[in-house]
Request: fold
Amino acid sequence: MEAESCEADFWRDEVRRFLPDAGGALVDALGYVCCPVCKVLSDVSYEYFCRLPRRWSDEPAMRRAVCRARGFCSAHTWLLARVQGQITIAQVCADVLDAVPTPPAPAEPCPVCRLRALVEKALVEHLGRRLADADARRHYARLPGVCYPHLEQLLRVDLAPGARETLLSCPARGVGRQSPFLCPEERPAGEVDAHR
Reply:
């Protein structure tokens, strides 16, 4: 039970580290011509790998999470390769391989995918609450809106009167799944990698 509590604390701290202010992150992302949730998620993934070298040596809980997952999914391994140098990649790979249990046990999900799913949930809920305000709805109605997957998630949130109509009136409604123009991240958060 204590291990589960420590793991829950770790993931709560991870969300706080990468999303200290959901409202501020969404306000910044609304300035781009893309889904604001996808924009923040893209930034979280990139920032995760930018901080990796220092965190790898200083934070055993983060290192354990990566090792239990046996590294990262395919998309996030490619992002790691684009963001970090060979020494960091070699250290991560060596530590992950050293930590593989014998006999092998099932791997946990990619830690970046898991973080993105938690951040995504927090952002969608925050945006849903934000749309309770009439001024926020008027401002949002002038923007491109969210991508289709995030529109679906927002429509499942308990929304204030008028928020549903605002969401459905935005120019991006009906846009196909994960449009490259609307969504800067290479894949949806929480999507399970087929190679795991």
